[in-house]
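Thread amino acids onto this structure.
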């Protein structure tokens, strides 16, 4: 919830005038419960969607980073309340876990995927193959010289978070009526 990628994603939503809800999954930070390999975490996402629907009464756009992108995409695909999905640093294999995305074939809402072209948990060739099978509409953007956390590589030093944020802002502004 407090890492730089999530913070910069929140700023992109705020920049276009959208309220943001950030949360930790069960067992993360000061959250109660314990990690449930993505099963219970999907329930966490759905609980936040319920809260947002009740309290904000606005169209919902979802963005998740890394593990959160996989879990959130799974939970939000097909949910009529969610009008758009953003996956940041979509992982294929990380921390001993393999991630699958076959469900994206039936996910017909607007989708934006942003990853670094040097993402150690989502190699570009593997991610392109997986996301290439996702239903339209979708956009896939690669941030040159960025790793999983949108930090620079030795060949391209310096943070790339601003580039990630700009891609999000442009997509949000052009895909949704935010006036």
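Threaded sequence (179 positions):
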């Amino acid at each position: 919830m407090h890492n730089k990628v999530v913070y910069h994603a929140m700023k992109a939503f705020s920049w276009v005038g959208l309220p943001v809800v950030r949360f930790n999954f069960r067992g993360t930070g000061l959250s109660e419960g314990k990690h449930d390999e993505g099963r219970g975490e999907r329930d966490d996402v759905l609980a936040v969607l319920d809260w947002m629907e009740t309290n904000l009464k606005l169209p919902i756009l979802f963005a998740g980073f890394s593990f959160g992108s996989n879990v959130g995409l799974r939970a939000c695909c097909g949910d009529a309340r969610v009008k758009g999905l953003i996956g940041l640093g979509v992982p294929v294999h990380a921390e001993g876990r393999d991630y699958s995305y076959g469900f994206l074939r039936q996910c017909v809402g607007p989708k934006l995927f942003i990853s670094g072209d040097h993402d150690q948990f989502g190699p570009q060739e593997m991610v392109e193959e997986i996301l290439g099978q996702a239903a339209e509409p979708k956009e896939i953007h690669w941030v040159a010289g960025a790793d999983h956390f949108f930090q620079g590589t030795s060949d391209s030093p310096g943070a790339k978070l601003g580039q990630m944020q700009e891609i999000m802002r442009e997509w949000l502004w052009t895909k949704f009526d935010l006036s």
